[in-house]
Amino acid sequence: MSVEERRAHLIEAAIGLAEKKGVAGVTTRDVAQAAGVSLGVVHYCFENKDALMTELVKALSMELRDSVDANETVWQNVESGKEALQKLVRGGLELMWLNIEATPERQLLTYETTTYALREGEQTPKKLAIAREQYAFNDSTLADVLDHARDATATEWSVSLETLSRFTLNVIDGVVLRWLVDNDSEAVRAQLDLLSEMLAGYAK
Asked: Rounded to two decimals, what is the model's pTM?
């Protein structure tokens, strides 16, 4: 394997372990064993556990981003105007939701990585950077989707893209966490309808 392939293999092994035992319970030795490599290989690819957790967070975030980007049909034959924008945003949210619904363990893991970083960050500021990087990446992903939707429908946002993407991420965070509690997918889709309507209200 190349170094990048080895890193991806180790990240996937770490994700599998963290889904079963939580982030705090995972060690680099565990990851080495799960991946079938020596501990030295893990430390060659990642300086320490925090570096591995940072890449784990990025991998989880990229999965959600790719769930929207991978299906080009939602971006085809798009009309202009606010109504078209709402329909397009709702289509993107649905693609994202299908990925989330199929991977509940990974969604729970995203919350665990955040709380792990916040708890440990009091003693080790570098750990706090894990959570901040996670949210910055997700903000950027949503900003790209919203900007693409604006461009495709010949509309403009009446508030800053940064504010809009942050708001959208906050809502999705709450929706997914509630779904992990009550497993009510029908309620989620109603909330995503409402979210797309709210977002379209900030377009002109």
From this structure: 0.86
